[in-house]
UniProtKB/TrEMBL annotation:
Residue runs in coiled coils: 6-33
InterPro entries assigned: Aldolase_TIM, Chorismate_mutase_GmP-bac, Class-I_DAHP_synthase, CM_dom_sf, CM_II_prokaryot, DAHP1/KDSA, DAHP_syn_2
PANTHER family in the cross-refs: PHOSPHO-2-DEHYDRO-3-DEOXYHEPTONATE ALDOLASE, PROTEIN AROA(G)
Organism whose genome encodes this protein: Halalkalibacter kiskunsagensis
Protein name: Bifunctional 3-deoxy-7-phosphoheptulonate synthase/chorismate mutase
SUPFAM superfamilies the record matches: Aldolase
Keywords, alphabetical: Coiled coil, Transferase
Transmembrane segments: none
Chorismate mutase domain span: 1-90
Cross-referenced Pfam families: CM_2, DAHP_synth_1
Phylogenetic lineage: Bacteria, Bacillati, Bacillota, Bacilli, Bacillales
């Protein structure tokens, strides 16, 4: 073959490449359109029946020289890339994403502005056990300038024989203490049917790690006009956590905060493994305030201070930790709650570190 002939063929090939490029991108644009229609209809993007019929259609029209199986393999790659394109589009559209909403969301908790750049502490007992217990802790918090009070009234316990919480009575105790000491109360709700009741007593509805995938609870909390604190599931990936958050916000409730609380790994030195890098990832990917629960992530009193420092240093909006007047007799999590002198030392040390300005 003369060199001239080769040059002509090569330039034809270049042209065909450009044509392919054009049609392949034209195809991608169509797929994106289809993705948009599917997302408004809530239809699954991956459609194996449709893929099979497209592959059959290609086989019927194949005149060679490529083998049909080779072509089907190539087209399958195109289908896969197209599906990824649709998924990328979809994540761009997440309401919780920074792409959708570049500014930080600041959640107003009765005047405490969570996410405004001031780093805060959320503290209180694991479970509400009595009025005196909650009042004692709340008073100690108040003396150190902390208004965000946590305490479980409905406790999701591993064993049904463990203390399940005081229920409504626990909510009433929290409300009474909040009114007396001007605190903001955060407590977990586990059952969508308790949400209405909780509105009367709570300032923040907590959705716990075990319920991060309870979509009916997420949707019901999303329909409320009340701030929500969503904790990361025990084995949830960050993408799953973000999508759980989307459930709440997609129902209209923008007052959402996220809480990293440790995940299950093979490590047994700590109760869970604190995924500290989740904080900057969640801050980058979403516009929501991000908290770190140092109590449930470590399960160890000796690790509360260093992990709290790490959380503040890495940019968490708040740190959550448990405080009990007498942890040894606590009805839940007795190994990891601080008593009041330990709590005061914790605050002293955090302030001395320069990381906590409160
Ligand atoms: C809690 O904060 O009381 C609690 C039970 O935490 P988690 O859901 O993260 O286990
Ligand atoms: Mn606890």
């Amino acid at each position: 073959m003369s060199n001239d002939k080769l040059d002509v063929l090569r330039s034809e090939l270049d042209e065909v490449n450009l044509k392919l490029l054009e049609v392949i991108n034209e195809r991608a644009r169509l797929v994106q359109e289809i993705g948009k229609v599917k997302s408004t209809q809530g239809v699954n993007r991956f459609d194996p029946v449709r893929e099979r019929s497209m592959l059959d259609h290609i086989a019927e029209h194949n005149k060679g020289p490529f083998e049909t199986s080779t072509l089907q393999h190539l087209f399958k790659q195109i289908f896969k890339a197209s599906l990824e394109l649709q998924e990328e589009d979809n994540s761009k559209a997440l309401l919780v994403s920074r792409k959708k909403h570049p500014d930080n969301t600041v959640v107003d908790l009765k005047g405490v502005m969570m996410g405004d750049g001031t780093q805060r502490l959320v503290m209180g007992p694991c479970a509400v056990e009595s009025y005196e217990q909650v009042f004692t802790v709340a008073k100690a918090l108040k003396e150190r300038g902390i208004r965000l009070l946590r305490g479980g009234a409905f406790k999701p316990r591993t064993s049904p024989y463990d203390f399940q919480g005081l229920g409504v009575e626990g909510l009433q105790i929290l409300k009474k203490v909040a009114d007396e000491l001007d605190m903001v109360v955060i407590s977990e709700i586990v059952n969508p049917s308790d949400l209405d009741l909780a509105l009367e007593y709570l300032d923040v509805i907590q959705i716990g790690a075990r319920n991060m995938h309870n979509f009916e609870l997420l949707k019901a909390a999303g329909a409320l006009d009340k701030p929500v604190l969503l904790k990361r599931g025990l084995s949830a990936t960050i993408a799953e956590f973000i999508h759980a958050a989307e459930y709440v916000v997609s129902k209209g409730n923008n007052n959402l905060m996220l809480c990293e609380r440790g995940i299950r790994t093979y490590e047994t030195a700590t109760r869970n493994t604190l995924d500290i890098s989740a904080v900057p990832i969640l801050k980058q990917e979403t516009h929501l305030p991000v908290l770190v629960d140092v109590t449930h992530s470590t399960g160890r009193r000796d690790l509360l201070l260093p992990t709290a420092k790490a959380a503040l240093a890495i940019g968490a909006d708040a740190v959550m930790a448990e405080v009990h007047p007498d942890p040894a007799v606590a009805l839940s999590d007795s190994a990891q709650q601080m008593d009041i002198p330990q709590f005061n030392k914790f605050i002293d040390d955090l302030q001395a570190s320069g990381l906590y300005k409160g």
